[in-house]
Amino acid sequence: xxxxxxxxxxxxxxxxxxxxxxxxxxxxxxxxxxxxxxxxxxxxxxxxxxxxxxxxxxxxxxxxxxxxxxxxxxxxxxxxxxxxxxxxxxxxxxxxxxxxxxxxxxxxxxxxxxxxxxxxxxxxxxxxxxxxxxxxxxxxxxxxxxxxxxxxxxxx
Length: 156
What we know:
Blueprint: H1 12-35, H2 40-76, H3 81-106, H4 111-141, H5 149-153
Helix pairs in contact: 1-2, 1-4, 2-3, 2-4, 3-4
């Protein structure tokens, strides 16, 4: 809620697109570093930092959607409950993939294995973002939600 007890208007569809774009860019930087053949050890150290930052940001983004955004949408648009369930399942799958990436980084896996993990995260994340945007952006155009964007979409 904004100062003075007034609800602040938020363009939720624009916020979602912006967060998705930042997450895409962050993952692409790391994928490029591996593809360009940088030595494994520096890339692994960078990936460790990346996992702490990116993985935490993506997880917070999905938790915010699950706890704040999706219940608000379900209350106003009950016909979207199956869609929201599918999106929650995607969140779970992405969390599983992020755990695998973190484990590979922690054990200093070879660049090829790291690249496979990144490709898996990229593929599911991109599919998820596209589906989510197709299904929810129109709804988000008119959504009134008394929350801060960082609480709904994560700290990005």
